[in-house]
Amino acid sequence: MERVTWFFLEYLICYTVASYLTMAAQTKLNITTDRSALLALKARITSDPQNMIFTNWSTSTPICNWVGVTCGARHHRVADLNLSYFGLTGTIPPELGNLPFLVNMDFSNNSFHGILPQELDRLCRLKFISLGNNKFTGVIPSWFGSLFKLQVFNLFGNQFSGSVPATIFNLPALQKIDLSDNQLSEIPNEIGTLNHLEKLYVQHNALKGPIPMTIFNMSSLTIVTFYGNNLNGRIHDNICQNLLNIQALYLGANQFNGPIPSIFGQCKQLLSLNLELNWLTGIHNINCIYLIT
């Protein structure tokens, strides 16, 4: 009986050690994959005026100690990549899609350009992405609609054009969209399917036509700004009926016409309203309408 017990204990110890070594080897392999992805990004950077990447991202230093990189406590994989305000110039490599544990990605306020590779649709844990204030052009890729955990979607301050892809509005967790200061021409009606969207920024684009009617059914919205586009038509009388939580609404510098809806007084949460520089009637000096309390 004692021999059986000792045999079982030896087996258990060997199994535990083998499992640990296998796990350690797998972790090392995985972090090597993450490192290769970031080194591919480093190779695409053509200007690093602050020497943030060129001098710090070295194979002689653990990747989790690299500037702008944060690893998760559980898996020890890259979970946060924050390169904002580094002043970088370069393009995004497809290898960046090989960061499966990435949750936050902030490349804002740099000079990245070129296309956004389809391989980024593999970032299935991504909740926050900000590529604002760069030099990306062309249409917004439809593959963004594959990032089902995305909560914050920031592409402001680029040169994206065309229609916002309808696939974006399949993202159930999306809470904030900032596409301001681009050259976008259309927002599809599918935007009304975003039941948790709270903030929508699309000011200073080239949007034309009426505002999609479905927006007025989104009770979760707190801030909406369409300022500085080419939108036209009338402002609907039922604008406050379903926008129960709206606090700020900016429709100025467009081509809206007709009377100002009296129902604005029924927007119980509304704190800021901008209707200036339109063709609206009903108030003597429309340029003075900024604030309702």
Automatic annotation (TrEMBL):
Q: What is its EC number?
A: 2.7.11.1
Instruction: Extract the SMART domains matched here.
Output: LRR_TYP (SM00369)
What InterPro entries does this protein's entry cite? DNA_repair-toleration, Leu-rich_rpt, Leu-rich_rpt_typical-subtyp, LRR_dom_sf, LRR_N_plant-typ
> Can you give the residue ranges of the Leucine-rich repeat-containing N-terminal plant-type domain?
33-71
Q: Which GO terms describe its molecular function?
A: protein serine/threonine kinase activity
Which keywords label this protein? Cell wall, Glycoprotein, Kinase, Leucine-rich repeat, Membrane, Repeat, Secreted, Serine/threonine-protein kinase, Signal, Transferase, Transmembrane, Transmembrane helix
Provide a GO CC annotation, any one: membrane
Subcellular location(s) of the protein = Membrane; Secreted, Cell wall
Any Pfam family from its record, for instance, is LRR_1
Does the entry feature the keyword Transmembrane, yes or no?
Answer: yes
- Similarity field: Belongs to the polygalacturonase-inhibiting protein family.
Stated name of the protein: Putative non-specific serine/threonine protein kinase
Q: The organism's lineage? A: Eukaryota, Viridiplantae, Streptophyta, Embryophyta, Tracheophyta
